[in-house]
Design a protein that fits this description.
Chain lengths: 343, 343
């Protein structure tokens, strides 16, 4: 059930990270409980203010500060043929740069920034185009952040951990390009840690959900494909895991996003085997949630709902999600109802 | 210096794995010393005999046996618009399937199969389109095979190990798609094992050489980009490591392949820092070897030389390589001369 006063956060609710930037979108928050409150780790996508006759785009400089590159629109070294990227002097840059912003709430719907917490910016050459779509997993008393690190080297998965949300331990890139939508399971299964991830292939293969295992959370192996896209269905073009799967009596319940060839993003569920989470026991034939509210149908990129964060309270899943790649919303789901829908 | 009687092996020198198949190409051998001899682990690409009015392609059946799919050329579910793959009922298949064949030699130029050794076929659903371009690294007394595993799940890196070339230990996929050109270093550096690998990205990023580290050879992390392609140069489109880098007094000498936009494959070298092999100290401005002999200029796919195997004897590198994706050749190089060329 969608929260009646959705969206709960829009770009106007936050100040940009610096004066020369404008917040274009709030996206896809990681979600966790900390210090008695509900927290969102929101992806904030900013774009430099555009000036007449110039194309400008953001990147990290050598000192890892966000800077704005300004190029005359008439530059012959500029190539704007691909709308997702700005190609300049043979390198590709993103039109926006994302960082992560922490906001907390006592009621789960009114969120505010707290002094001393965040923001979290890209930190080096593997994050020079920004960091995106962070999952947060509380595992054995430590919070693990798995997020998409974007740079000219590619799109890869990086991990950091924290216990106080002020000091972070860096694990480097735990998965090489091209990979995103990575979440850790929130407990070990047997002796091993597990993660779900979503590699992409330029040929043979696709945008499928994979699983990997680890003994130390730093090094990962035994990669196996969990689920593929399904031709002619709502999840025909790409799929990716949400946040940590929910342990139920019937197995691991995983909420995932699926997109079709029209880039319409819906949410579905899979039930993974309790002892071997590489095995899919059941999967949504139809979405458990699809874009229908006005703020989900229209926006920066309409027809998109995307989640990578929730809190579980008994049967209730308090889910936060990005709508139309522009605003943050909340919906409450029922574990039992989702499991029923998988039968 | 090329061996005068190149090529040393051609498709006619081996029998196909079964009657319905024809060997199209011999490619890119892994190379090692074992039992007092030099051994090649050759990639053999086979294609089903084609019949009038049919398109046929190979794949592993559910029992992991190579079978031939035959489809009427007129089938509306057949899509041949991409020459690399056969698309049928929405899935992509390769026109050929590769397996690995072992051959040994006492003089390094006349190779023969030995009863009881090989061939090595794809073994499960991650290898249903074949296995390719195997590097062999002798590390702490065990041979490690790192090769490209191809299936509808994608193109990934799998590892097996052996001490006797008859019994093998499977490590599963050590890297998820899209990845190939993976080689282990042949010793630990500090406490860690290292591998070079080559992920590919469908957007942002490219076909670059990366490095990863491990404590147990099964689980890999701390992925870092070692080298990118270079615009306007011989290695502008894709690069990939050969076999295990050679330890020299000046650092790790790595032979690699580079291709340009015309798919012309040459060989070059990089010198990597002895203590931190993610650092490139020097790199070939011009190739150390480029297609020039007739068998390198013309063949199944002309203008290609590609190596992933050699033996080092003092200053001499006895290198084996695939030429024109069709025949196996030998060339002897000098460590000292390559190092000189990097200055």
């Amino acid at each position: 059930m969608r929260y009646a006063n959705n969206p709960i956060l829009t770009p106007r609710d936050l100040a940009p990270s610096q004066e020369s930037m404008k917040i274009e979108c709030l996206l896809n928050p990681g979600v966790f409980r900390f210090d008695g409150k509900t927290w969102l780790l929101i992806r904030v996508a900013e774009r430099p203010e555009q000036r007449e006759g110039e194309i400008s785009f953001p990147l990290l400089d050598d000192a890892n500060r966000i800077t704005v590159m300004r190029v005359p629109s008439s530059s012959p070294e500029l190539d704007l043929s691909d709308p997702r990227v700005i190609s300049y002097k043979g390198s590709d840059y993103l039109t926006t740069m994302s960082h992560l912003r922490l906001m907390s709430s006592t009621d789960g719907v009114r969120f505010a920034e707290e002094p001393g917490y965040g923001p979290i910016f890209g930190s080096d050459a593997y994050e020079s185009y920004g960091i995106e779509d962070c999952r947060v997993t509380l595992l054995e008393g430590t919070y693990y952040l798995t997020y998409t690190a974007v740079s000219a080297n590619g799109v890869a998965v990086r991990m950091r951990s924290t216990t106080d949300w002020k000091r972070f331990t860096d694990y480097g890139l735990v998965l090489p390009p091209h990979n995103k939508d990575c979440t850790l399971f929130d407990e070990r299964i047997g002796d091993l840690y597990y993660m779900l991830h979503r590699p992409s292939s330029p040929e043979i293969g696709g945008n499928y959900i994979w699983i990997a295992e680890s003994r130390d959370l730093r090094h990962w192996g035994n990669h196996r494909c969990v689920a593929r896209t399904r031709k002619g269905m709502w999840d025909s073009a790409r799929i990716g895991a949400g946040c940590a799967p929910i342990r139920t009596g019937e197995g691991w319940l995983m909420i995932y996003h699926g997109a079709d060839g029209d880039n319409r993003y819906c949410l579905g569920a899979m039930l993974l085997d309790a002892a071997d989470p590489s095995k899919v026991l059941a999967r949504s034939d139809r979405p458990i949630m699809e874009p229908s509210a006005p703020y989900e149908l229209t926006g920066f990129f309409g027809n998109v709902i995307f989640t990578n964060g929730h809190i579980v309270e008994g049967d209730r899943i308090v889910m936060y999600y990005g709508a139309s790649d522009e605003v943050i919303c909340r919906a409450d789901l029922s574990v039992r109802e989702i499991l029923e829908s998988l039968k």
